[in-house]
Write a structure and sequence with these properties.
mainly alpha; ABC transporter involved in vitamin B12 uptake, BtuC; two-stranded antiparallel sheet; 15 helices; globular; disordered C terminus
């Protein structure tokens, strides 16, 4: 009996050591957000929510946010840092959707055409943005947010003055496009979410969105195995060595930012159909911060990022946001839960970004 007890005790200790070694390899941000997510899940189950309900909400936000988070990978790998100018790509994606809806396209034709045009417009805008980043080397993360803010403000005027008269898109009174344009009239409301949708044991799986996400992730991973992708990674890791090896540093950075902006433009098309409407005006303004926070939660740094960081970080960060609202609504009944949730989200989101930036040396160069 003593021998068996000793074996059980040693096995338990070995298991603890294994867990400790795994946790030691995880970044502080991943452990923190993962721990909070676990606490919220347990609290929700104690208060009557089913695990499948909470996981379904997490998967939904993962499906609509993952591609926007993925857009940070090329910019980080190229040495430009997290893409705080994500609104540049988002605005291009919104413009693509508006133009395709003006042509009265419907259903999957609308989504596919909008996605294709978004990639083209995003790449063109990304080329200009990449040239700007080359001109401000060393200050990318200081300039990028203001670039996104400026373009968002500019397009607020565009949405108000653009000569579109489609009755489902213009304001009811006065000129300009609506703040939110519903996809329901165009037959594109949550199309990807409903594609091959199934439910098992209460778990709702929006298969179409997840397929698009994983295709984009796979293509991104494959791209960084190509000659161009390896060159971009080399530029981000050591630009002087890359230049000595014959790599055009500025060109590689421009290509990376073109891809980043194009992916963001595609991402907002997936995001919009997932909720059933496109939001204009100031909607893109702060969209970069949740995406940046998510990839940092997944273990990315200001210099290195992988597709696995995108998947893990988006699932944890957006999962925490998705489950906090229903759980805290029940736990804090009678209080202004929206304000509490927004406060918690902002503290976690900005805290993670601040922590990651504080860990970067010399601005991430």
């Amino acid at each position: 009996m003593t021998s068996e007890a000793t074996k059980e005790g040693s096995g338990f200790l070995n298991a603890l050591k294994s867990i400790r070694s795994v946790l030691a390899k995880l970044p502080f941000s991943t452990i923190t957000v993962g721990g909070l997510y676990l606490i919220v899940l347990i609290t929700g189950i104690i208060n009557g929510f089913t695990f499948t309900r909470l996981l379904s909400d997490s998967l939904h936000l993962f499906g609509v946010w993952a591609i926007l988070t993925l857009a940070n990978v090329p910019s980080i790998q190229s040495g430009s840092g997290p893409n705080f100018a994500l609104p540049v790509g988002i605005v291009m994606g919104l413009l693509a959707m508006v133009l395709m809806m003006t042509l009265n396209l419907r259903g999957f034709v609308l989504i596919i055409a909008s996605g294709a045009l978004a990639i083209v417009l995003g790449a063109l805008a990304g080329n200009l943005y990449g040239r700007l980043m080359n001109a401000v080397k060393g200050s990318e993360m200081a300039i990028a947010p203001y670039t996104g803010f400026a373009l968002t403000s500019l397009f607020s005027l565009v949405w108000f003055t653009i000569p579109i008269t489609h009755p489902q898109m213009v304001m009811f009174l006065g000129d300009g496009l609506r703040q939110m344009i519903s996809f329901d009239y165009f037959g594109a409301d949550r199309l990807l979410a409903r594609l091959m949708y199934f439910e098992i044991g209460g778990l709702q799986v929006r298969t179409g969105e997840l397929i698009v996400v994983f295709i984009c992730c796979a293509l991104m991973a494959l791209f960084f195995r190509t000659k161009t992708g390896i060159a971009i990674s080399a530029v981000g890791r050591n630009p002087m060595f890359a230049k000595a090896a014959g790599i055009n540093v500025n060109k590689s950075r421009v290509i990376a930012n073109m891809i980043s902006t194009a992916v963001a433009a595609l991402g907002v098309v997936v995001y919009a159909q997932g909720f059933g409407f496109a939001q204009l005006y100031d909607f893109p303004l702060l969209m970069a911060f949740p995406a940046v926070a998510a990839i940092l939660v997944g273990g990315a740094t200001g210099q290195r990022a992988k597709v696995s960081n995108v998947i893990l970080g988006t699932l944890l960060f957006q999962g925490l946001i998705a489950t906090s609202l229903p759980v805290l609504t029940r736990v804090l009944a009678g209080t202004d839960v929206d304000q509490v949730i927004n406060g918690v989200r902002m503290i976690i989101q900005n805290g993670i970004i601040l922590y990651a930036l504080s860990r970067m040396s010399k601005g991430g160069r």
